[in-house]
Design a protein that fits this description.
Structural class: alpha+beta
Radius of gyration: 23 Å
Oligomer: single chain
CATH topology of the largest domain: Glutaredoxin
Helix content: 40-55%
Strand order of the largest sheet: 1-2-4-3-5-6
Number of domains: 2
Number of strands: 6
CATH superfamily of the largest domain: Glutaredoxin
Distance between the termini: 56 Å
Number of helices: 10
Length: 262
């Protein structure tokens, strides 16, 4: 081999070694970022659990205990515009629609793990607007709670009610969504007229809102909860199923729609 060929071979080997080192470093960074993300998510979940704890033991309102999370929920949504089923500023550039059942335990998981961070980082800052569509298919408790949620929406307090419902969720179809339980949730919502909401929950309009949500889900091909549509506020929305129900799982898509800014 000539000296020139030898130099070329040596240079090629050096370049390959540098590229291998760069790939290894990138892999280590990705692993570290994933680990940090998992730690942050775990801390966030723990923080929510501590914040909603009222010191009254593990029993919540669904099991006859003290209402859980009223102060936390009130603070989460304070000052953010609500209009019917929509949370957030009208001019927000990104739109996220959630399809959920108030008895769905996975919907509760999303509410505990992801929602507070998404509200804080995207909705409160005016970057995203959220919409809640109540499917109410699991059973009678879903329907009863859903009709009260519709009544809360008529007073622009839907998100407060939904959040409290998930924070005090009982076991599916055990009959826990009693009038006294639902009243207790309503009474914990700042500025809501409880008597008017209870009357409104018994009207055809409350039931019609649930039918409209089901019709929208059918048109969009939604067949499970929680399910999401996401996209630009003035453009088409697409189905989005995150790999996990954490804020980090939504962040890449939201940031992409926002042009990479946060």
């Amino acid at each position: 081999m000539s000296s020139r060929q030898g130099r070329k071979a040596a240079a090629r080997q050096a370049r390959l070694a540098e590229e291998a080192q760069a790939r290894a470093a990138a892999t280590r960074r990705r692993r570290l970022q994933a680990l940090c993300g998992a730690i942050v998510a775990a801390i966030a979940v723990a923080a929510v659990a501590v914040a909603i704890s009222s010191g009254g033991g593990s029993a919540n309102a669904a099991s006859g205990g003290k209402l859980t999370g009223a102060a936390f929920s009130s603070s989460l949504f304070a000052g953010i515009p609500q209009h019917g089923t929509v949370l957030g500023r009208p001019g927000a550039p990104v739109r996220l629609i959630e399809f959920a059942d108030l008895q769905c335990p996975y919907c509760r998981e999303y509410t505990l793990q992801a929602l507070p961070t998404l509200v804080r980082d995207y909705v409160r800052t005016g970057k995203a607007q959220m919409q809640f569509e109540n499917l109410s298919f699991i059973g009678p408790d879903s329907v009863q709670a859903g009709e009260v949620a519709s009544a809360a929406a008529a007073q622009n307090k839907l998100w407060n009610f939904v959040d409290l419902m998930y924070l005090n969720q009982g076991t599916e179809n055990t009959g826990y969504a009693t009038p006294s339980y639902l009243r207790q949730l309503l009474e914990a919502i700042p500025g809501l007229n409880v008597a008017a909401a209870l009357r409104a929950s018994q009207t055809p309009a409350a039931a019609s809102a649930l039918t409209q949500a089901s019709d929208l889900a059918a048109r969009e091909g939604i067949n499970g909860t929680p399910s999401f549509l996401i996209g630009p506020a003035k453009g088409p929305l697409r189905q989005f199923q995150p790999p996990t129900l954490t804020a980090a799982a939504f962040a890449a898509t939201l940031n992409g729609l926002l042009g990479g800014s946060r």
